[in-house]
Amino acid sequence: MNKLEKVNLFISIYIAQFLNIFRISAWLPFLVLGILQLIGLIIITNLNLPVFKTVVFPVLNIFMPERLFHYPIYYLAAPQAFSIYDTLILGPTVSVLAIGIAICRLGGFHERRFDSLSVCRKKAVENYGKLLIFWAIQTALLFAVILIPANFMEPYAYGSPRFAAIVKIILQLAGFVVSALLIYAIPAMLVGGKSLRDSIGQSLKLFFRNPIFTYFIILLPGTIKICFDLLTTNFAQYIITRDNPEIIIWTLFISIGTNVFLNLFIYGTAVYSYKELSP
């Protein structure tokens, strides 16, 4: 397949994802995930709720000092608290299953086979062990590529939001490489019926055969996610001092809704590309 054919393929796959927006079952798993994210964010940002004081605060206090749980500083800490909830609680549970169900469903759409959500849910649950191990591997790699260098660079970026933002963007783009390397693994598992090891191996092979094509699967939706991330972290202090601090919380709410469809484009494009690019 030459470069022009790959461009045409990418465009056709993206058009298919736009059409999938009108298929509610295509993004329903991500909507369920978004609702749980929304509930978590509401609890996290309402410090006076009994459930926050008895359940949420003791957990967050493991990762964050108590001084952050006071107005208005908490508006700076809320995005980090939500990230902990989303990554460490929803990540290995609801998130991996939602991705698995959606990929199964989207793979069926590509093959003109309309498996029910219950069938796809059963398939995702049956493969949960593999999905969980894959999540752990991918998360560990992303931590190594993004968080460790970010912590190392933090003293140099202190007091310079612009420099910190540049560092974050560079590290996020590096993280996209990790995601792109592994993007075909879950489709290979659930649609291709391969083992975890073979799924990762095939994902790596497809990436190195189509590096730019695959990177753009992550880059286009990921750029929007970076923008939301910068607004709620690097530029949060600027927003608090010059505007209404509630803007940060509302931005998080908007990002949750947006991510429902960004996930559709990431994983829908991934599974369609897997089917088209696999030998």
Number of helices: 12
Helix/strand-derived category reads mainly alpha
Give the overall pLDDT as a whole number. Answer: 91
Shape: globular
Strand content: under 5%
Order of helices and strands: HHHHHHHHHHHH
Determine the N-to-C terminus distance. 12 Å
Helix content: over 70%
Main sheet record: none
Low-confidence stretches: none
Number of domains: 1
Radius of gyration: 19 Å
Number of strands: 0
Overview features:
mainly alpha; 84% helix; globular
In short:
The protein is 84% helix and 0% strand. It has twelve helices and no strands.
Describe this structure in words.
With 279 residues, the protein is mainly α. Helices cover 84% and strands 0% of the residues. Helix 2 runs antiparallel to helix 4. It starts with a helix and ends with a helix. The model has no long low-confidence stretch (mean pLDDT 91).
What topology does this entry show?
Layout lengths: L2 H18 L3 H21 L5 H14 L10 H37 L6 H10 L1 H30 L3 H22 L2 H6 L5 H14 L1 H22 L3 H7 L3 H32 L2
Helix pairs in contact: 1-12, 2-4, 2-12, 4-5, 4-6, 4-12, 6-7, 7-10, 9-10, 10-12
